[in-house]
Design brief:
- This protein is α/β, with parallel strands linked by helices.
- The protein folds into two domains: 226 residues, Rossmann fold; 123 residues, Alpha-Beta Plaits (2-Layer Sandwich).
- Helix content is 34%, strand content 24%.
- Strands 1, 2, 3, 4, 5, 6, 7 and 8 form an eight-stranded parallel beta sheet that branches. A six-stranded antiparallel beta sheet has the order 12-11-10-13-9-14, sandwiched between helices.
- The protein is globular and about 60 Å long.
- The structure holds guanosine-5'-triphosphate and magnesium ion.
- The site of guanosine-5'-triphosphate has 22 residues, from helix 1 and strand 12.
């Protein structure tokens, strides 16, 4: 009886924009639809105004968030949040890891096993893989307009995983799916491999069945955490989180879908001109009642993917912009400034910034805990 009430916990890893948040939502909805209760703990390095946290909160799935740093480095906080979700009835809790997306097997699973004993049942440590990013590791790598150092991350993410899930199968044909599965099998022949589309739900039930019926071995795996290659990859990434308030100068209600689309396009153009890229740029804005906007760009060479567009027209809105860029923090900031100025001018808007943080992943000063000291 004791065993039945123990909360299950699973960490989802994967490359920026691979579909971790969408997958956690798909798993949680699948479990909820079967009469269980799942929860999501959305994690990010940024201090606040995190698109994934707000988007997850809109989903109707039980959720909470941990901001400010990776769950790898705030164990007590993580355990506290897990206990709270469990006390709200969550039988299965999912969380993702932000940033480079590696290291949580040691820093989360092994620590939970060591410090909390068997309080939580640890489900397989699962890596979500985007077929498009897999091109980085193909024998004849395609030019993906991403720094080559980032290949290390994708490889390490799959190396660390106890289950690899090829996601976004709706976006590829059967031939491409086989090519992707074949490559993963060749690289990681001992790791269980499945495929699904978190977006359409195809294959999600089978993955949910697998993870719920297996347990993590919670054993260290050598993935080169902290190595030179790791630091080289990390140093190519920057984070940008901003919350702006737009207000139409003449108080007219306008179509903010067009405004936010222009911001995506402006940032795309600015980064392209600067020779940078953005593995994941996300925008979220809540309208009235259940109305909201959420969209993603997973690189300057792809189209904007809309998870949801506004139904209503508005005269003023608060908008969250999150970018995980393969560009310097200054270039990313300049691209966003340019895009916001142009959109404000075109749509007759006043713009106020209420929150802004921008940092290179390896920049000195990022981890100073808010103190004004040099370190
Ligand atoms: N076509 C398709 N798109 C998907 C699928 N899963 C996720 N996406 C889209 O891919 C984009 C990124 O998805 P997220 O779930 O936000 O990715 P993530 O890994 O959580 O991103 P970060 O947290 O920023 O690293 C969004 O536009 C999703 O709608 C899928 O199965 N098929
Ligand atoms: Mg996410």
């Amino acid at each position: 009886m004791q065993n039945m009430s123990k909360a299950k916990y699973m960490v989802v890893s994967g490359f920026l924009g691979a579909g971790k948040t969408t997958s956690m939502l798909a798993f949680a909805r699948c479990i909820d639809s079967r009469g269980g209760k799942a929860a999501i703990l959305a994690n990010d390095l940024g201090a606040a105004n995190i698109v994934d946290a707000d988007f997850t909160a809109e989903s109707g799935v039980l959720s909470t968030s941990i901001a400010g740093d990776c769950i790898c480095y705030q164990h007590e906080n993580l355990v506290d949040k897990l206990r709270r979700l469990a006390s709200c009835g969550a039988g299965v809790i999912f969380s993702d890891i932000p940033g480079c997306g590696i290291g949580a097997l040691d820093h989360v699973y092994l620590q939970l096993a060591e410090k909390e004993g068997d309080e939580f049942e640890l489900l397989p440590f699962t890596c979500i893989v985007d077929p498009e990013r897999l091109k980085m590791l193909m024998p004849e790598p395609e030019e993906l307009n991403l720094p080559s150092e980032l290949r290390f991350l994708l490889d390490a993410q799959m190396r660390e995983a106890e289950l690899i899930v090829l996601n976004k199968t709706d976006a590829i044909g059967p031939e491409q799916r086989e090519k992707c599965l074949g490559l993963i099998r060749t690289l990681f022949p001992d790791t269980p491999l499945m495929s699904m589309s978190a977006k359409t739900g195809e294959g999600v039930g089978a993955v949910a069945d697998y993870i719920l019926s297996h347990r993590s071995a919670a054993e260290h795996r050598e993935i080169g955490y902290g190595s030179e290659a790791f630091i080289a990859a990390e140093s190519r990434l920057s984070w940008y989180n901003r919350r702006v308030y737009f207000e139409r100068r003449d108080s007219a209600n306008i179509d903010f879908n067009a405004v936010l689309t222009d911001i995506f396009e402006g940032i795309r153009a600015g980064l392209k001109a600067a020779g940078g890229n953005v593995p994941h740029l996300k925008i979220f804005a809540a309208g009235e009642g259940p109305d909201y906007f959420k969209a993603s760009l997973t690189g300057v060479d792809y189209g904007v993917e809309y998870d949801r567009l506004f139904d209503g027209r508005y005269t003023a809105l608060s908008v969250i912009i999150n970018a995980r860029a393969a560009a310097g923090a200054e270039a990313m900031g300049a691209a966003a400034d340019g895009a916001l100025d142009a959109a404000a001018e075109k749509h007759g808007l006043r713009v106020r910034t209420f929150f802004l943080e921008s940092f290179g992943m390896t920049e000195e000063g990022r981890g100073n805990g808010g103190k004004a000291s040099r370190f």
